[in-house]
Design brief:
The structure is a homodimer. Chain A is an alpha+beta fold. Chain A is built from twelve helices and twelve strands. In chain A, about 40% of the residues are buried. Chain B binds a DNA duplex (30 and 30 nucleotides) through helix 10.
Chain lengths: ~300, ~300
DNA sequence: CGATCAGTTGAAGGGTCTCAACGCGAGTGG
DNA sequence: CCACTCGCGTTGAGACCCTTCAACTGATCG
């Protein structure tokens, strides 16, 4: 709403956009000197993001730097000047916002073939931080190259739009998560969402390994980490899944999904199936009727 | 419905209460400058979004359809086929997701010069619905035109990227909102955020009119609507602001911002300790280090 | 082997949800 | 014009889930 374009290269502007893309990639050398490891090219990025092969071969030789991170390493800090956006090639990240009192609010978990740092576009600085949860590597696309690339290479423009659209959709899932008042429901939704994303990556949707700690999950879901632990125990007791520290196996996927759909009850809907007596560690479905809409 | 152009010109307000909405729009400087005269071409859109004039004049004659909506009217339904993205020219919208049981989760409030419906890019259908909270109008950019426009017209590409980046940043603010467990803090953050956005639109950040109902706010904040009401009362009692139904006036902006920063735990202690109302420096009881995770 | 951290579980207290009731304004139709 | 309805907003009271503090286990590490 205020300043927009002036951030990256206001002097350049329209004229610079006519410059050949390859020329602008001189900056790659600088980046490599700054500690970026091996180099890859645009075709790899586009394939990763699922672009059509017919589009890919045209631009196969455009270089794109790559950056590898160890578990716990920081990709970018909060408030840092935003110099690039990133596409996750392998690994997992968490993005978070640190409050004035030091409270760490996890905002998203980002996996393979997803974008990182795009929310810095339009601001000069990253509004969030990102750290690797495991050994990972990302494609690095400099901000000043982004506009040119998306204009000159249609495949990249499409990929970028798709990825940001998905990122936007993901962030609304976070709201869905927190919308559920009951902590067990939040956790169930989290697991269902995770399961879907595992499936999308070609991995098993029923049995997977959590990359994030209980504290991260707790922050993401907006509850205390003890509550996450208790919720895991509850879901196990009810037979939905099996848990061993960070190994999760979903035993009854359909039932879990149904359970995950329970939301705060709308004001106009009145649950009549009231049974005040079964409220202790019991039925997998239908317990705590107060929060479940009668199905 | 009592809708008014809140903000800097209180004098003109009282008189314009009874005047037809459209007439009032013409009388306000902002709208007059933006050109209410149905200039439905790309240059209007780009100006709205803050693009540089040097970029705008080059493409001034590309037509872009416009759509007007009355208060309560639906822009697009959830699950509907996504055919376009929208840029808000005038008015306010809410986007929301309807659960299987009918619970309506509000995901965002979208105002002037912001994007709507971009999360549908990549999916064929809108993952969320959008309805107008007041009489509004939007620029309509068809999906099939979007790629071409952003490739051939650099200004549009920039504007699109910036807008989506802002949308992403906004959605993370929602998480910040829900992260604060205390309901009063959530509401305080909501008001602070709203205040900033009003200021960004050139309107008064201290006194404004809420376009959304208590229920919408409640859904957005993830609490019951009664709790929102109680939280308003609490903030008023503590002297932070004055409220009359949907009219809000912030009395102590700095104190409110400080209060909004408190995470987790009794908003009580902070709010009630205003014996000496010079209580600006408040380390919010930092005993929440437990939530800091590894780095 | 202490030290530290992640994860689990228990007990107590408090904040929020739900269920009520009430006042208020707008739209409606007799 | 007025009674009526309906939705919005407020407030009170009780139930209950979550937070907090605490202790305990097991794993990793120097």
């Amino acid at each position: 709403m205020d300043r927009m374009i002036e951030g990256q290269d206001q002097g350049a502007q329209a004229a610079s956009f006519q410059i050949d893309t390859m020329l602008r990639f001189k900056s790659v050398a600088n980046f490599a000197a700054a500690g970026v490891g091996e180099r890859s090219n645009l075709s790899g990025l586009l394939q990763l993001m699922g672009a059509e092969m017919s589009d890919v071969h045209l631009v196969a030789d455009t270089p794109v730097p790559l950056r590898s991170l160890r578990a716990g390493e920081v990709l970018f800090h909060e408030g840092e000047r935003a110099e690039a956006i990133y596409f996750v090639r392998v690994g997992t990240f968490k993005t978070f916002h640190t409050g004035a009192d030091g409270y760490e609010q996890v905002l998203s978990f980002v996996g393979r073939a997803e974008v990182l740092g795009f929310d810095a576009v339009g601001l000069q600085r990253h509004p969030t931080a990102a750290v690797a949860l495991e050994n990972s590597s990302v494609y690095v696309v400099l901000m000043r190259d982004m506009f040119a690339l998306s204009q000159h290479i249609s495949a990249f423009g499409r990929v970028l739009h798709l990825a940001t659209g998905c990122a936007l959709a993901h962030s609304s899932e976070l709201a869905d998560m927190m919308a559920a008042v009951a902590a067990e429901v939040r956790l169930a939704r989290f697991l269902v969402q995770l399961s879907k994303r595992m499936a999308a990556c070609g991995q098993s949707p029923r049995r997977f390994h959590l990359r994030m700690s209980r504290r991260d999950i707790a922050s993401y879901l907006g509850v205390a980490h003890e509550t996450v632990s208790r919720s895991f125990s509850a879901l196990v007791n009810w037979g939905y899944l099996q848990v061993n520290i960070r190994e999760v196996e979903i035993l009854k996927m359909d039932a879990l999904k149904v359970f995950a759909c329970s939301t705060r009850r709308p004001a106009d809907e009145i649950g009549r199936s009231h049974d005040a007596f079964l409220h202790l560690t019991r039925p997998p479905v239908g317990h705590r009727e107060l929060y479940n809409a009668s199905l």
